[in-house]
């Protein structure tokens, strides 16, 4: 599950053309992804804590992405989506975090874009 905002890439590009700072936009998406990572970490099963410790957000200028797992935790996908042949039930911790964050993410995005517009001097 994910939230896609139609026209967001065009909005970000337009704000940049009008003088909005890329760092301001990165901060908005970084905050959203950090909150998503915090939620996903809380929803992740905790046998050893390794999986939870790999959950991170990105710092892009036009999207917020949360990732889980790395080379030392290659089973993140199996834990999230399940692996019936191996007796692993899906925990769907990433989807649960996504659903919990979706309403707040829209509010955070609106506030961040409003602030970027204000800083760029595009409002009265």
List the main descriptive attributes of the protein structure presented here.
about 120 residues; mainly alpha; two-stranded antiparallel ribbon; 2 strands; elongated
Concise summary:
It is built from 5 helices and 2 strands. The protein has 124 residues and is mainly α.
How would you describe this protein?
By secondary structure, the chain is mainly alpha-helical. It has helices at residues 8-17, 22-43, 50-53, 76-81, 93-119, and strands at residues 56-57, 66-67. It contains 5 helices and 2 strands, in the order αααββαα. A two-stranded antiparallel ribbon has the order 1-2. α2 (22-43) packs antiparallel against α5. The radius of gyration is 17 Å and the shape is elongated. The mean pLDDT is 87.
Task: Give the biggest beta sheet.
Answer: 2 strands, antiparallel
Q: Which percent range describes the beta-strand content? A: under 5%
Number of strands: 2
| Overall residue-averaged pLDDT value | 87
Helix content: 55-70%
Query: What string, H for helix and E for strand, traces the elements in order?
Result: HHHEEHH
Between the first and last Cα atoms, what is the distance in angstroms? Answer: 38 Å
Q: What is the CA-based Rg, rounded?
A: 17 Å
Q: Which stretches of 5+ consecutive residues score pLDDT under 50?
A: none
- Assembly annotation: single chain
Q: Please tell me what the overall shape is.
A: elongated
Structural class: mainly alpha
């Amino acid at each position: 599950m994910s939230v896609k905002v139609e026209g967001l890439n065009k909005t970000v590009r337009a704000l940049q053309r009008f003088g909005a700072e890329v760092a301001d936009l990165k901060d908005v998406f970084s905050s959203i992804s950090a909150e998503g990572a915090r939620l996903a970490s809380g929803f992740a099963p905790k046998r050893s804590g390794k999986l939870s410790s790999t959950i991170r957000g990105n710092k892009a200028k036009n999207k917020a992405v949360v990732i889980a797992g790395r080379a030392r935790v290659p089973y993140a996908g199996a834990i999230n989506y399940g692996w019936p042949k191996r007796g692993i039930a899906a925990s769907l911790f990433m989807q649960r975090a996504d659903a919990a964050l979706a309403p707040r993410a829209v509010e955070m995005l609106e506030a961040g874009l409003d602030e970027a517009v204000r800083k760029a001097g595009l409002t009265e």
